[in-house]
Amino acid sequence: MRYGPPRVPLPLPGIAPLFVLLLLLASCDTEAVNTNEVTFNGVRLRARGDARFELRNGRLRVTNIGGSGQDGLDVIRTAPVLRGDFRTVAVDVPEGSRWGMTLGGLAGGAMVDLMSVWHDGRARERDEVLFEFNDGLGIPSVYLEYYLADSLVFRSPEIPLNGARRAAVSGGESNAGPQSVHVVRDGGVIIIVTDYQGSSLDRTDGVDGMGCPNGALIFTPFGLPDPVCTDLVRAVPTAMQVAPPVSGLRLTGRDLPNGFELTDASVE
User: 20 to 30 Å CA-CA from 208: which of 6, 110, 136, 151?
Assistant: First the structure.
């Protein structure tokens, strides 16, 4: 909140406290919204499930994220999504909870979920990063890229999807809260991304004697002796037999007592 000095010359008894209160409220940079639709940084959003919106200090807080897994927000857009970026305050994902982004579109003649990136709350105050892919996209395999300060620090081996109807690929367990999620169409493939750049929710800093300022330590499932210090993880398909337009995009969670808070949003 920003408070300016109240200028109340010779107030009448009994009136001054109310006048000062009104001045303080007027100087507070807060706007609550009681609606299920809002335009945030030029992006039209609709509350999903039981979620509620609140605009505060230039941020959009999404609350009332219950146990259905369907609470969150949808992007309202008629044109296909070529790129989407959603930056948040570091999301707290307790054990048993979930938060992430899902892309929707036509595959096999039906409207389906194409891809997702999830953060699942695990034991020891860690989050597991999971990427999911619909088999209708014809993706034979993916690889994961881990970056730090825009430099590639590790690339996983190719991970076969084996034609699973909804294949899930683990990127490992993180010690910090996710800071944003992204999607970008790059040539003939769709790439989904999660990042930890500047994450303030590092719950186990210095684990195993290691720290990772402005990022996260991720214990990968690829046999590395030490966790990877990274601020961005990309899931890159090696090929896509079908690359339909992304016509739906949503952020949802499950059992998030603090909800999540957007600081920026951009969709092209």
Answer: 151
3-state secondary structure (DSSP) of residue 9: coil
Question: Structural domain boundaries of the chain?
Answer: 77-267
Q: SS3 sequence, 196-219?
A: CCCCCCECCCCHHHCCCCCCEEEE
> Across the chain, how many H-helices and E-strands are there?
1, 21
Q: Whole-model pTM?
A: 0.83
